[in-house]
């Protein structure tokens, strides 16, 4: 009995939500397009979309050398710090340690989420 009541209540809430969305969605859509019309290219056709996607792809491809250069600068900085480890301050070491711990925590969280929120381990 309680299950059928909850099901009817859920259906009622779903109906209300769909009515609210159907009432306000067209207005929101028009408002969104109006606010961002400077981003829209005329005519909005499939050919225009294909052109934009190719421009995005090749622009990203052209940015790779700049990204590689920035990566090499960062690696040079890390090498310099590694060579001069005796000049490190405790603040720098603590920030690096906290960053490493944060990366490890995100890795563990990703592993747990990837397993469907199950905890597994070795039994002793």
Automatic annotation (TrEMBL):
Main location class: mitochondrion
Name of the protein this chain belongs to: Mitochondrial ATP synthase subunit G protein
Family, similarity comment: Belongs to the ATPase g subunit family.
Keywords for the protein's UniProt record, in alphabetical order: ATP synthesis, CF(0), Hydrogen ion transport, Ion transport, Membrane, Mitochondrion, Transport
Domain of life: Eukaryota
An annotated GO BP: proton motive force-driven ATP synthesis
Pfam families (alphabetical): ATP-synt_G (PF04718)
GO CC annotations on file: mitochondrial membrane; proton-transporting ATP synthase complex
Subcellular location: Mitochondrion membrane
GO molecular function, one term: proton transmembrane transporter activity
């Amino acid at each position: 009995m309680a299950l059928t009541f909850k099901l009817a209540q859920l259906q009622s809430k779903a109906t209300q939500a769909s009515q609210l969305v159907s009432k306000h969605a067209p207005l929101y859509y028009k408002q969104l397009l109006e606010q961002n019309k400077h981003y829209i290219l005329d005519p909005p056709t499939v050919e225009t979309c294909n052109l934009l996607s190719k421009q995005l792809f090749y622009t990203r491809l052209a940015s790779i050398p700049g990204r590689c250069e920035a990566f090499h600068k960062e690696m040079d900085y890390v090498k310099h710090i590694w060579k001069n480890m005796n000049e490190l301050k405790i603040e720098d070491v603590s920030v690096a340690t906290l960053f490493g711990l944060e990366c490890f925590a995100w890795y563990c969280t990703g592993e747990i989420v990837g397993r469907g929120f199950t905890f597994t381990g070795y039994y002793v």
